[in-house]
Design goal:
Chain lengths: 204, 204
DNA sequence: CTATTAACTTAATAGTGTTAATTTTATTCG
DNA sequence: CGAATAAAATTAACACTATTAAGTTAATAG
């Protein structure tokens, strides 16, 4: 018979507690600042204790990444709440995505930039979080097609990959401070959205 | 008076030698595999010696990143060599960029994904390498406008930011294995290029 | 030859992720 | 309740890491 000293909700609570501290450390000093020693110090436990909840640092960061995807998903959901027209929703959604990325660039970078072999043993939690976030986009694209506002030449999923890709590309050039566009970004962001919508519209 | 035991070219040679090993280590095992100890071991010197040439690991990785930008620049330059039409060149360039990224995804990831505070003390070498790579794109865009094949609503630099962003976004979704598009990518890559060109074309 | 100095080595510091052995703590059964 | 049992946390250790400082070698300029 299996006996648990902690009930499942308690375990989940402790996990979240650890992730809270990890996120705080990350947002202050990046990925390097996240260490089991530091987490343990803030949680007033030994540096080995968090291993009961996360098998490795990679697993911890993966959970953090999943959180970030759920966060940006929420931002998109909130953004489309007021609009009824799917094409309007698509615009709002893209804008919200980009704004979120620029508002917390480090968190956004975590989602995409710090990956060490995610292929092996992909976390179901992360996969689901990504799927859900992309799902918002896919649903809106599909709705726009149904409403006759978009005539897709590919399936809605592929179309939202294209859409997401465009939005992601522009902000990540800015976020990673790879190419600073400065004020030009304010012009380019709506322009990218218009361009992508136009591209999804075009009849041959 | 300043005396140098090594002439400037010799110093540059040693730097390149270190970078060669660092690149090899990186392409095998990612950023974690690059360490001064391992480099030193392969170069048959003490693990402290490379510090004469790179002040920190970050500086070493920055130099490696600059190399990668020059590499992808070369790929673009090679790609446009045969074409005379600017709009054709733009297509070829974008395709070559995306192909390069997918061919050596780890190297591409290094360019964009592993950045720890690049803002402070930006390496002139890296800044120049980025500028040069983007410059290819900007020049072709400008040429296309001059030839009447593109009617830009923004300056060529901003336009190429948009263009680069779109291409980068699509491949980086694939590269980081964030969203696997599988075969759909073959469709989406040309579609993204067409979409971006159409977006840069549109008259109001 | 001697002083200088670049290049390098050795040694040490402070930190990391991770594992194993051990102790503490709490729960469940008799 | 008390003893058995197992979970949770701790301590200690290992094998790394980046980085710095002090000391050494070797070559060159005057």
């Amino acid at each position: 018979m299996v006996r648990l000293a902690m009930t499942q909700p308690q375990i989940e609570f402790r996990r979240e507690e650890i992730l809270d501290v990890a996120l705080e450390l990350f947002e202050r000093g990046g990925i390097e600042a996240v260490s089991f020693r530091r987490i343990a110090f803030r949680l007033d436990c030994s540096y080995s204790a968090p291993y009961r909840y996360f098998a490795s640092k990679h697993e911890l960061l993966t959970a953090l990444r999943a959180r970030a995807f759920r966060w940006i998903e929420q931002r998109m959901v909130n953004a489309i709440a007021g609009s009824s027209s799917p094409i309007e929703q698509l615009r709002k959604l893209a804008r919200a995505y980009m704004d979120a990325a620029l508002e917390l660039p480090d968190r956004y970078a975590l989602m995409f930039f710090d990956i060490g072999d995610d292929d092996l043993d992909p976390s179901p939690e992360l996969v689901e979080a990504k799927r859900a976030a992309l799902g918002i986009c896919t649903r809106v694209v599909a709705a726009a097609e149904k409403a006759g506002q978009l005539s897709l030449r590919v399936d809605p999923l592929s179309a939202s990959h294209l859409f997401w890709g465009g939005a992601h590309g522009l902000v990540s050039l800015q976020v990673g401070s790879q190419f600073v566009m400065g004020r030009a970004y304010e012009t380019l962001a709506p322009m990218m959205i218009d361009t992508l919508i136009a591209g999804l519209k075009a009849p041959p």
